[in-house]
Protein 1
Amino acid sequence: MLKKFLALTLAAILALSLAACGGGGGGSDEPEPDDGGDKAAVTYDDIDDNCESEDGTYQIAMVTDVGQLKDGSFNQFTWNGCKMYAYQNGKTYKYYQPANGSNATDDDRIKAMTDACDAGAEVIVTPGFLQATALEAVAPKYPEVQFIFIDGWDMGLDNVLGVSYQEEQAGYLAGYAAVMEGYTKLGFSGGGGGANPACIRYGYGYAQGVNDAAAAKGETVEMRYSWDYGSTFSASDDLQAMLAGWFNAGTEIVFMCGGTMFNSGAAAAEAADAAIIGVDVDQSNQSDAVVTSAMKGLDQSVMISLGNYYNDGMQSGALVLGAADDAVGLPVDSWSLQNWTVEEYQELFAKIKSGEITIDNNSEMADPSSAGLANITFVK
């Protein structure tokens, strides 16, 4: 579904005569990807991460979230959208990684955003909620620069667009798929300590999907649900030990919802011959334990937002994307479910897209055991 949307999006983008790194008057010593004249056929990996402009200025910039650019998750797929749009539309581009990596401070992010502005950025893409304080400090000083706040919100600034997602829909689809596949003892391990709205929506949507699928099968299923060891969204020995205990106690599959927490889940699941669900992007290539992933169309949403800016001018407020925009879903190209088909998934997706199925998006429901989900028994 998301792959089809991307193809349609790319096909709709005007193909310009490009300089090697994306153009806009810039040059590069790197060879241009061999696309055979079909720019929509170019993959993300075909496009260099490093664009060298002749005058040292860059039109599209991205300031990374915590971690590295190639994190297989939020940074990487946001960057994919940035450089693909730049490649397709003849723009120069550059990424900025704040100092101190996963321990970056607000001051580090402020400096990275300021450096991008001073290097001529017309638009700066900032993935992750941790960027908010830096945006409040930098955006008012550069009113002519468009800031796109991925996984953000309406900040009340004229040059900041907050892009958010209906994570509850993606979580619902993942939970429904897991139960339809045959899992009856499920888990959820979330990031942000139960205070991050996006993770809460993912988790509550997941629980609703699990509950509805169990009801459809006439079953009651078991769920462990925890925010422990996830406050920093990072892998840890304590998190891995907790998850190993879950698997040893009979849990069959866990939705890992929080950055590199995924690594702890993957290690514990692989050791127990159990399963996990990925988040934000298709994480099936990162572990054989991945059954499916609850995805946001990060790359697509970046391309949509950049296109809106370059076509219509400065954007502000909030842009919320979901199933109606084909911007959330499960990956079908890596489909590995044996007991629930792609066709059945697409039928369910269509009902969500049309509004026939609605999912509660309460971003304060950090404890679904209090939500009256009759087909789930929550256990410690």
Protein 2
Amino acid sequence: MIINPNVVVREGGFVFHAERGDSFSVNPVGAEILRLLRQGQTVAEVVQELENRYDADVATIEKDVTDFFDVLRHYQILEAS
């Protein structure tokens, strides 16, 4: 997964889709996930990083990341790599 090149992501969780003119806010974990994707990490690496940082089981993290990615794809923030 890659972030659409028309999308700007700011540190505080502000997401702007320049082509569509849409803006969104994500929580700190969402901002962290987007930062990791910008760094080129894979979905598995993102899940591993979150598992290392947060006290949650991997199945919950995988489901939450999958759900978040579904929303990002819906709003054309993510593209298939």
Protein 3
Amino acid sequence: MLSQTSEKSKAYENHWPSIDSKIAICMSGGVDSSVSAYLLKQKGYETIGLTGWLIKGSGRCCDNGMIDAAKVCEQIGVNHISKDLRVFFKQEIVDPFISSYNAGSTPIPCITCNTSIKWGSLMQYAFSELSCTHIATGHYAKLVKEDSGFKILRPKDSKKDQTFMLWGLTQEVLSKTVFPLGDLIKEEAREIARTGNLLVADKEESQDICFVSDKEGTQGFLGKYLQVREGYIIENKTGKVLGLHQGTYNYTVGQRKGLGIAHSEPLYVIKLDVEQNIVYAGTKDELEGHELIAKNVNWIMSSVGMSPNLHLRVRAKIRYNSPTALAKVTLLENNQVRVVFDEPQSAITSGQSVVFYDESDQILLGGGWIV
């Protein structure tokens, strides 16, 4: 057993580095990263605002966002720097996103962006070119330092909990990371922004993919790169042809809307056969499964995954907004795991993440990519 339920009652204190640290705050131009920069400045840290220029043309993070970040930095009296990462971002995030859909998987680019961009290129740039000692982000997560190492815990604001997106981080990067919002709820962050007269205090937030516009949506974005390939929608249980589709990339497991099929009961996408160009549809109960295999697993505390014969009891979840569920994790070869849930889970989807918490449901243990 990794943890006792008494962990819930522990008063964990969010970790802050020594006051002589020089911190680069990754800024998107939104209220959360702006408040994080403001708090760092208020606490007396030497602070630099750092924004990655990620995509060509307009985008949520790369036009008004970059300008707003610069304006906030000017307001609070810190320097702002933008780093051109457009080529790298396309290679590491956008191209794999397109390829994943084309192969019948459903990716989560924000998790890859965290490890490759924020705690990758931007962190490296901040340390090597700006002489920073730490980076900070506007994630709602709590970082705790103990004798055994650094732990990521759920934040004060359970509704804004973003620990799910951080499972790819390592002890090395966590030792140089700050999460200023770990002890705040969103409303408190907004109030701090208003108190500081930050121009983004009432700015709306977006939780969608930054390089996909609201106007075109995911299907419209993919349609610019992937060819229409008409195929059959087939009933999963009977093999009956129900209709036609214009490409498997337009669908994801668990999808209900957009099938365009009249049926006696609601139908969902059950699976995708890219090679045969078939979308299988069925009823909600056909989506349920107990088991999955995940690859490229990362354990926040590396000692957790040391023994190949170890069986872990954890709480796990397979999508950002779902609750965790009790499961057993068996470590396999080649950095893979088998996860068996106590109760069936709906729409286990290739390309998504399975994320592990301890049995108290408070400490992030790690995660992997569902295959």
Protein 4
Amino acid sequence: MILVRTGPRFLFLRNSDREQLLGLLEKEYSSTRKPLDQAIEESSEGDTIIFVLEKDEEKEQISGSTSVLLTDIGSSPLLVSMINKKHLQENIEEAELGPGLLVMKAPPPGETILEKVRKEYDALSIPLKEAIMKGHSDWSVVCFTGCPLSRSLSTSDLLDDTLLIKKSVPDLYQELRRQAVKYLTEELEEGEWREFKINIYDYWGRYNLQHERITTVIEDLEIGFILGEIWSLDHPFVLMSVPVFQIQLFSYMNPKEVKRILMALEYDEQGKRLVDFDLYFQKKKVEWGGVEKGRQTNRIDVALSYREKYMSMLTADSREKLARLEQTLHECEEKEKCEQEENK
């Protein structure tokens, strides 16, 4: 589970002929022009977003629709490359490195974490684009989001305000990484993380596949930390015990949200039951009927609505992986059925 990560760096270049320099950079670094908002959304750690300004153009004129270049080359190697290429060097009249970017996990509503970090670092709370324009090379812009940090984020995924902090990205990143759990804990309504037990029961014994499905979703949605995995016994009825594989999950999410995610994985997209996932919190079983008040429908319909919701939140790679695993589950079931028929 990622609680804080770095983002792109920002490089400002000036030239009396903006279009000429943009064209040279596009060709040299195989980059295409795109709006700033789109570049931020598509950027990853270690990327650089390049602004090309006219000689006397003010940074304040930059907006989300301003055309920029996005490259996967880090800002320092990029500057070295430009200096060593004479045709670029001759067309750059001024270069300025902007602030670095950090993104921090902040479960909704998120304002508590923002305010605590602001006070601790005497930060300026302003919109993202303003922070990018005002920041210096040894400053940091910190954004906050409730979304998983393992993927690209759009500006709509971020809190409206960001923090501009007078500290370099490497130093601030190390400090926030050490304190991230503390900040996240203070954001929680009850001020504590929760320990869950997830019992997996598969009639056909496909535990390795079910384990891979659930861990894929836990990691992709950054639900929490897996503390342990053991074989155990469940008691669905008096004097009846069945073997189950148990996962111990440490999460900031509330029990109802975790239960919804598990229900989404119990069925395939056609509504066929794949597995039983039972969730326990504080030694009590979390029942499906209480996860959403006022819903008068059957379990399959509820589970399929959750499946649609959470599948859309996964990355494309994870959705493809789950599809492959579910296909294998069906094949294993058919094989087991055939073997049972042969043994009759």
